Amino acid sequence: MNHLLIAPILLPAIVAPFIIMVLRYHIDLKRIFSTASTVGIALISLALAIQAADGTVQVYELGNWPAPFGIVLVLDRLSAMMIVLTAVLALAVLLYAIGTGWDARGANFHALFQFQLMGIIGAFLTGDAFNLFVFFEVLLIASYGLMIHAGGARRFQAGVQYVVYNLLGSTLFLFALGTLYAVTGTLNMADLAVRVAELPAEDTALLRVGAMLLLLVFAIKAAVLPLHFWLPASYANAPLPVAALFAIMTKVGAYAILRVYTLVFGPELEVTAGLAGDWLLPAALITLAVGAIGVLGAREIGRLMAFGAITSMGTLLTAVALFTPEAVAAALYYTVHSTLAAALLFLIADMVMERQGGEIAAKPVMAQSGLIAALFFAGAIALAGMPPLSGFIGKLLVMDAARGHDLVWWIWGVILVSSLVTIIGLARAGSLIFWKSHGLPPQTHTLDKGATPPPVQATSSNSALPFVACFGLLAALILLTILAGPMMSYAEATAAQLFAPDAYLETVLERAGK
């Protein structure tokens, strides 16, 4: 077995408790170990992506127990792409949090950050549906701690709402898993795919119930309307560097939909045919439209970016809901783009909020206004899908993949109109914050409402790290634009692997003799 496969889960699982137990009162050592762990995860993820690039599927059997009897981790092109994306995003967010002193506004930021990475990467690598639930719970616990980092009444209230809503999703997840286990006797995803295909038609009623419950759970995680209510307040009131990391969390829901509804309940399976796409497509289009309206109507910069994240998820899930190799390839390209673009804008929003508060209004000129305005302009172009950045390419790919669909005009219309509304909303916010502020006297630093002031020793107002993180994400978006051809080749190969899962099934179940 390739032990490198478990390393990106094991490394943060070791570093997080070490930080809590040994480095509790040493902020500099916390930063060093957390950064070293995140860099290590990035290097390991890159090595795994290189191994998976040729289409090889690798399996890691925990305790050397073969599937379906033991827990397995599975590496293929899709999981490799997602863990690399997670590692790149995590490194940028961590550098920003250290550079601004956000990590020192609470006791356990770095430990929770590492547990969060453990949960995200574990969700992408697991080959077992129950352990997908386990890693979802690790995500939930760590993300709640990060959400209320630095305190504040509004932050705590939003955190409680976030936990309650996601616990509802967890309960539905358990019901779905119990239903599937009762019908099939297994929760290993490869074994589930085999057994589901062998079920006689008269025994599939409960199977459809389980499949629909799973879709509801993943839709909650992906913030699909009308199950999106937890996201705007949660992301807007969380520390915005944390919200930038959360840009990958909604992608966990989209990833789970892709994985389960191509592997276990594939498009060719008659008993669940159309179950996901028929419901998901209209919901995704409505999510896209509502997100764009939210961007236009937002009065606080945190909520502006939260609705921007909803808009990007609507576009992504529109492509996913088509369930064709071409559409899934477009969705994968757009996944990388939307994660980086949303994270960039959340970090820029934090810069604005720290300097002049969260309200979108004309205020005195902030420090480093020109540089932040340039970053905001580039990030807004990326999120709205304007040329020349990768968002424009991603939306064109999604629209092209929808050409043969019965609802093609609806899909094109919603994407184009929502893009226009998003552009207007972002332009309005940018003009108020950066343009109309000129001519007013300079303003000193203002904290967001309900936040705890940072410790004096932790604040580094002259640090270049925040701008390094932001320009790093922008550079990644430019690179994604320049390398759109190779990236789409990888995405197309990944989609082909998803829709032809024989290699996945054979590799996972090889030792079980199935």
Mind explaining what this structure looks like?
- By secondary structure, the protein is mainly α.
- The protein is 71% helix and 2% strand.
- It has helices at residues 7-22, 27-52, 77-100, 109-125, 129-147, 153-184, 189-198, 205-221, 230-237, 240-245, 249-263, 275-297, 301-322, 325-356, 369-384, 390-401, 408-435, 465-482, 484-499, 502-509; strands spanning 58-61, 72-75.
- It has a two-stranded antiparallel ribbon.
- The longest helix is centred in the N-terminal third of the chain and has 32 residues, at 153-184.
- It is globular.
- Residues 444-461 have low confidence and may be disordered.
Q: State the share of residues found in helices, binned by percent.
A: over 70%
The total of beta strands comes to 2
- Number of helical regions: 20
Order of helices and strands: HHEEHHHHHHHHHHHHHHHHHH
**Distance between the amino and carboxyl termini:** 19 Å
Q: What would you call the shape?
A: globular
